[in-house]
């Protein structure tokens, strides 16, 4: 059996200190929360649909992800709080759209990563 556990407590103290220093200034909870939001399959499906369709009504998004309007609204609210999507109302309908175009880069990065890993 291959044992990949270090038997020494610290070899490169300078590297460890630099990494710890950079980590102290890194907003881990926010970044982790962002990725946690996108780790949900329904929210990822919503983002994917909005990337390709520019804007969609909540009821249409619910149909796309095969969920209730209430569940879909909950997911959209989470995405809206993060600044990923935004909405506008047209009568009784609420339309959602991608607010931050950088999400397109993230989606593309995820697809490229998947292709490289599975290649």
UniProtKB/TrEMBL annotation:
CDD domains for the chain: HTH_ARSR
Residues covered by the HTH arsR-type domain: 23-118
Cross-referenced InterPro entries: ArsR-like_HTH (IPR011991), ArsR_HTH (IPR018334), HTH_ArsR_DNA-bd_dom (IPR001845), Metal_resp_trans_reg (IPR051011), WH-like_DNA-bd_sf (IPR036388), WH_DNA-bd_sf (IPR036390)
Record GO biological process: response to cadmium ion
SUPFAM superfamilies noted in UniProt: Winged helix' DNA-binding domain
Record Gene3D superfamilies: Winged helix-like DNA-binding domain superfamily/Winged helix DNA-binding domain (1.10.10.10)
Keyword field: Cadmium resistance, DNA-binding, Transcription, Transcription regulation
Example GO molecular function: DNA binding
Origin: domain of life: Bacteria
Family matches, as PANTHER family: ARSENICAL RESISTANCE OPERON REPRESSOR ARSR-RELATED, HTH-TYPE TRANSCRIPTIONAL REPRESSOR CZRA
NCBIfam families recorded: HTH_metalloreg (NF033788)
Protein name from the UniProt record: HTH arsR-type domain-containing protein
Native organism: Pseudolactococcus plantarum
